[in-house]
Amino acid sequence: MATPTRHRPSSSVGEPEEAFGKEEPPPGPPAAAARAPFRLCTRGRKPTLALHILSSVGWLDLSLSMATLALIGYLTSGPGVAEGAYYAMCIFDESTVSLVSLVCGVTGVLLGCGTPWGLLRHWWLLVKWVLSLGSAAFAWVYTHPLVLTAAEKAAAAENGVHRPGPEGTLLAWTVPPVFGVLVFVGVISVYKPWGRTRRGRRYAQALAAAPAPSSGPGSGSGRGPARSGPVTSR
Q1: SS (H, E, C) 10-39
Q2: Global confidence as pTM
């Protein structure tokens, strides 16, 4: 009498497949790595930093020139001197001041995004951004129209005597403080006071809690321990 064929039962839920001699399926592809943040390489960071420093110094020098011209236009009684001072302010404002402040802002954004400093992680950077953007907006929205009006009134001075008027007075009392604001911005850029913002503290905590990077494939290949310390380029 033939022995009946015994059919292997199918695996039930929760029953391991090894009981029936089957191997586990191979693991799937690793999960996609998290997108790495934007970072400037050394070749890109150093020229950007140099351009940022040079444009910041240029903006500071131009602001001092604008303050001097505003005081000259306010204190002089000669209409030709006042007109020349205000027209010089107009030329500076429309050409070099706008260009230098734009370069300073763009390079600052690149350095903030491309380095661990970040844009909003430290209070000194946040204050620097607010004051710098405020100074640039003040120059275009407030100072520029006043300079044009003051130059026109100086050209139309009667009896050969220049009187500053409200426009010249406002320029004399508002343009020099802008130079002081930019000096303050430069000082806090050196000393970096006030610590981290709340966003910066969260970033530092997440960075400290992140696991240390593995040594990668070949770490246990028996080639001996990896060298510690910095790697010197040759």
Answers
A1: CCCCCCCHHHHCCCCCCCCCCCCCCCCCCC
A2: 0.72
